[in-house]
Protein 1
Amino acid sequence: MKFFTFILLLSLINPIYSQQNLNMDNLKKIITEFQQKFAPDKRTALFNVSCKLENENEVVLSGETDLADAKEALLKNLSQAGYKLKDSINVLPGNSFGDKKYGVVDVSVANLRTAPKQEAELASQALLGSRVKLLKESQGWSLVQTPDKYIAWMENDSYVQMNNLQISEWESSRKIIFTKINGFCYSAGNVNSDPVSDLVAGNLLKEVERDSEFVKVEYPDKRMGYILNTNCENFKDYLNSLRLTGENIVTTAKKFMGVPYLWGGTSGKLMDCSGFTRTVFMLNGIYLPRDASQQVNVGIPVDTKDGFSNLKPGDLLFFGKKATPTSKEKITHVGIYIGNDDFIHESGMVQISSFDKSKKNYSHFRYTQFVKAKRIINSAGENGVQLLKNIQY
């Protein structure tokens, strides 16, 4: 009798558990679909949401996202599907920054890491004068989002916090852009004076006044310094003077010859392959995505199925593994075509390699790894290619 009662209870309970599991599986599937829709690239968007069943019929949603619209859409979808919800999803930025939810980089090159600690992998870098959105804080580090939407951790000492008014004033101020690959800002109008800091190409500083030899500048933290006129230009004038041509791209790229490789680097100090291409195009008014696997998604495809004859100087070349019936395309490297079957890229150091087997700098490895090419020059402002002047940089 007891055995029969146990079997009867089990037969009644199992369908309930099965239905709960079915509902939870469906719920997790919906959350995954929303994540894929709103945050397909975890490098540029956060949508970390999980769920659990509480009090038999209430679903608790927890986690964090920087996409308020995505959260609201998810809650609406689940409510309409009949789920009873308890919302514990945190939308970033929270309240830890008060009204100062922006930062402006205050060092020549700020490191961005995958976790809030020095030993974490270097993911990218941000340059002096560029703004970041502050998302959350942890023990002297902040999770930030750069103008190209890249999300990573930056030390708090690398930036100056600003509210809406302050960031607006900074962005609207008259600024200079440092145009030399590397250099210094001095404490007086004299190159023998103590440096205020080092500088790299692309750094922005507020212009205070200038004379025939030096520009007096102001840092985000109000430090003052002096830069040689020959090493910088008025930022607006610089942007207006740019002419995006293959020749100019190649000329800029060659200025970085010999700069050593660093995974995550994006400056004239040290750089990785996509940091190199990104910096070269940035100095020519184009704001490319950060990584090679992102850069391959912008621009116009160039037909290379019969060789390299359709390539033009300034085209981006992508390397890795081509797609097969059983595997997806994988992009692991990027360079810039410079003509005559040659290309310039960051590999150990910035160097020129060739697809031409008769040349001394022929690279069999890169030849066999070539996947595709994209043209950026004819895509300015279109096909995912953003103009620097349109970025809140």
Note: The longest strand covers residues 330-339.
Protein 2
Amino acid sequence: MTVTPVSQPVRVLTTPREIDLSVRDRLARALERAVTCAPGHVIVDMSSTTFCDSSGLSALVRALRCASASGSTVSVVVPHRSVRRVFDLVGLGKAVPLHTSLDEARSAAAG
């Protein structure tokens, strides 16, 4: 997982191909650092992620709470239908903006 500054207030966190219990703690730490290092917008880029279980969603929900407390916002790139379906099933798309591409997320973050 890498955090790449796109522009000052926008950071991109790229997630691994599979998100499950084995990477949950590392993902949670990376998400927390991304949303609390400075106020701004964090794009969670799940373009390469083809599997995400409830532990990954849980880490994301915790990051959303941290972001809110630290003055940051979050959006998520979820192009794969199988992963998007998990977001839709638990209603997470109502709590965080979902995009189908990184370009789309960057454009939305820019205003």
Note: The chain has a mean pLDDT of 90.
Protein 3
Amino acid sequence: MDKFIWIAFAGALGSLARYGVATYVQRNADTSFPWGVFAVNMLGSFAFGFIWAYSEDHGWVSEDMRTFALAGFLGAFTTFSTFAFDNAQLARSSNWQFFVMNIVLANAAGIALAFAGLRAGKAI
């Protein structure tokens, strides 16, 4: 049971970090495109790949700590549900250019950054 409490605690930290980063980025963006959520998803994609690869290759952290970081913190930090909602809102407002742009950019860049994180984690 203690493991689940720690994962929930990590999730709370991740959601607070998501809110802070997304809010900061969006306030500094001069557009209705959801750059805050996009930035969080890209950062989370890279961090997930990096932590997985680095800890796997170097024994950096225990399996429990990796679960804490990946399932807890990054699981709450990344925002796919918010991503889906933002896309639904863009579609509802017929903002098709940003709708397509967000789907293509987030998926292509997220996958590329996950690979970059895996590569960076193995390189160190």
Note: Residues 13 and 91 are 31 Å apart (CA to CA).
